[in-house]
Write a structure and sequence with these properties.
The protein is of the alpha/beta class. It contains 8 helices and 5 strands.
């Protein structure tokens, strides 16, 4: 097919609509007959989905910040090795709902885990895989949390202060790497947000 593989990630705090937008992008690229797949983190493959269950279960409340960070990385390492890297190497477009930026925002900015440690483990876990484009969906923290399901997971149940730190962590990342990370404000309809998304996707594809 001659298309160079692309890796596009979708980031954002709770209720930002990134999962909705990633599904819309999947449909949009499929309609163009492009070789595309959508993955999610943590998860995407059998082993990583099992780790996801442990991470998000409310019964895992005794989990330490260190354990949480390492489990996210373990799930990511398996996804990269098993599916993500082979697909990009074969020329596919891989869309991923969350990736490394999530760990820096949630476990780094949110929990206070040393970001340089996260980055070091990250280099080992992702084997050189880096997104070509990251779309960061930004929303007011309280507004975002009000959009989440009534049945909240272990991370969603954390305090407003925690989620505010996550949002600030994301915005700091975008400031540091503006060529890769594009901030999209989601203060409007999902259709208008998708028009903004499409403009960035078209540039990369």
């Amino acid at each position: 097919m001659g298309i160079k593989g692309k890796f596009i990630t979708f980031e954002g705090s709770e209720g930002s609509g990134k999962s909705t937008q990633s599904a819309l992008v999947l449909d949009y690229l499929k309609a163009k007959d492009l070789p595309v797949m959508l993955l999610r983190e943590p998860g995407g493959v059998k082993i990583s989905e099992k780790i996801r269950d442990i991470l998000l279960s409310v019964s895992s409340k005794a989990m330490s910040d260190e354990c949480e960070t390492l489990l996210y990385m373990a799930a990511r390492a398996q996804l990269v090795k098993e599916v993500l890297k082979p697909a990009v190497d074969k020329g596919q477009i891989v869309l991923c709902d969350r990736f490394m930026d999530s760990t820096i925002a949630y476990q780094g900015a949110g929990n206070g885990v040393d970001v340089s440690i996260i980055e070091d483990i990250g280099h080992f876990a992702v084997a050189g895989v880096k997104p070509d484009l990251t779309l960061l969906f930004d929303i007011d923290t309280q507004q975002g949390l009000s959009r989440t399901n009534a049945k909240k997971d272990r991370i969603e149940l954390r305090s407003l202060e925690y989620h505010s730190r996550v949002r600030q962590g994301y915005l700091a990342l975008a400031k540091k790497d503006p060529n890769r990370i594009k901030v999209i404000n989601v203060d409007t309809s999902k259709e208008i947000v998708f028009e903004r998304v499409k403009a960035y996707i078209d540039k990369v594809i």
